[in-house]
Amino acid sequence: MVYYLTHYDVDTFPFLIKYLKDKGYEAEYLHTPTNSNEYVNDFRGALHAVNTAKAGDTIITYLCSAGVLCWWISMLKHKKIKVISSNLTLKDDQSMRTRLMRFLYRKAVKSKRYIQLINSRSYEKLIQKVLHTSRPLPLLRDYNQYPGYAREFNDNGKRIFCGGNTHRDWDRCLHIAKLLPQWKFLFVGFTPKEGKSIPKNVKTFSHLPFPYFMQGMRESTFVLNIAKYNCPAGLIVLMQSAWEGRVIAMNENDVTKEYITDERGIIAKTDEEIAQKIELAYSDQEGMKRKVHNMQDFLTKECSAENYCESMLRAIEAAQSSAQQ
Predict the structure, then answer these.
(1) Is the pLDDT of residue 12 over 70?
(2) Fewest CB within 10 A of the end CB: N or C in the chain?
(3) Range 29-45 average pLDDT
(4) What three-state secondary structure class fits 178?
(5) How deeply is 271 buried, as exposed, middle or buried, from its count of CB atoms within 10 A (0-12, 13-18, 19+)?
(6) Is residue 251 within 8 Å of residue 230, measured between CB atoms?
(7) Residues 188/161, Cβ–Cβ less than 8 Å
(8) What b/e sequence results for 90-119 when a residue is b if at least 16 CB atoms lie within 10 Å of its CB, and e otherwise?
(9) Could you write out the DSSP letters of every residue in 127-144?
(10) Distance in angstroms (rounded) separating the CA atoms of residues 175 and 191
(11) Neighbours of 305 (CB within 10 A)
C-alpha cells in the first residue's frame, strides 16, 4: 500500500493516486490536520500515517517535515515502513528549530527506508554538504499547478504584486518598493511591525481570501517574489503568476535559478539589480510577452503532471529495492 500524506483539504495532485493505481499499486490519501499550529499538525499527521501503515507499506509526504517525522516515529515504534519525503525546505539560518531539523534529517538520510526528494540539482549539492551525506537525492520538479488555462501577457501599468504565506523576505520587498517610487505595490501576507515605515506606494493586507489573492495578482504587471532563505519558497506563486500571464521577478538562490532565467522572467541577486531589471523589462512589451510564454513553456515541459508521476514512481521503486537490500 502507498499512502500520500498531504496538508491540503482538497488534494492538488488528483492525478497521482490514479496513476499509481493504473501501475498496479494500492494507493490512497491521508490528510494532515490543520486545526492547530504547524508543528503539532505535522506530528499528528505523521503519527496517524505511521499508525495506519503496515510493515512494508510506503508513505509519501508532501511536506518534508512530515516525512522526517514519519521516519523517526516508525523507528521508535519498530515499524518497517518506507518513507518518501518531498519538498525539502531546510533554512540556512542558525535557529534552534533549524539545528534540530538538520539533526533529524542527518539520521534519516542514512536509512535505506528513507528517500528525500529535492526540486533542484544545485540545492541537492548544498543539502548533501549540510547533511554530511554523499547519498544521491532524487529530483522531483514541483508540479506546475496548471489551472486549465494559460493567459497571455497584458500590461496593467506600473503595478507589482507580492504575496505568499511563508519564507518571504518582506524587508527586501519594502526596499525594492522604495527603489521604485513610481510603481504601485500590493503586499498580501504581510503584517507590518509596529513602528515600521511603509512606503506610500505600498498597500498591505495580512490576509486575503484566495479569489481576491488571485485577483490582485491578475491586476498586476509583475509579481515580485523574494525568498528569505536559500531553500524552496515561492514556487507555487511563480507558477500561478505564469499561468495568469504575469512576469515573475525573484532573487537568485540554489532553487530559483533552475526555474527562472532572464528569458523566463527576472532574476538577480541584489535588490538594486531586480529594480533595474523591472524598469528595463517594462520598456520592452514584446520582451515581456516572450518571458511569459517561455515560462509557461518551461512549466509545461519540465513540471508536468506526467513528469511528476514518473519521478514519484521511480522513487517508490527505489525505496522498495533499497529496503530489500
Answers:
(1) no
(2) C
(3) 86
(4) helix
(5) buried
(6) no
(7) yes
(8) bbeeeeeeeeebbeebeebbebebbbbbbb
(9) HHHHTT------B-PPP-
(10) 16
(11) 15
Global pTM reads 0.90
Mean of pLDDT over the chain: 91
Average confidence (pLDDT) over 292-296: 98
Q: How far apart are CA 133 and CA 156, in angstroms?
A: 48
pLDDT tens-digit series, residues 163-180: 987 788 999 999 999 999
Going from the C-alpha of 321 to that of each of 17, 50, 277, 325, the distances in angstroms are: 21, 20, 48, 7
Quick one: cell of 319? 525505496
pLDDT at 115: 94
CB 70 within 8 A of CB 46: yes
Residue 54 pLDDT greater than 90, yes or no: yes
Looking at residue 251, its amino acid is N
Is 170 within 8 Å of 271 (Cβ atoms)? no
Q: Give the percent of the chain with pLDDT over 90.
A: 67
- Across 52-79, average pLDDT: 93
Q: Could you tell me which of 38, 36, 109 has the C-alpha nearest to residue 72?
A: 109
How far is it, in rounded angstroms, from Cα 146 to Cα 14? 12
CB within 8 A of 51, min separation 6: which ones? Answer: none
State the pLDDT at residue 250: 96
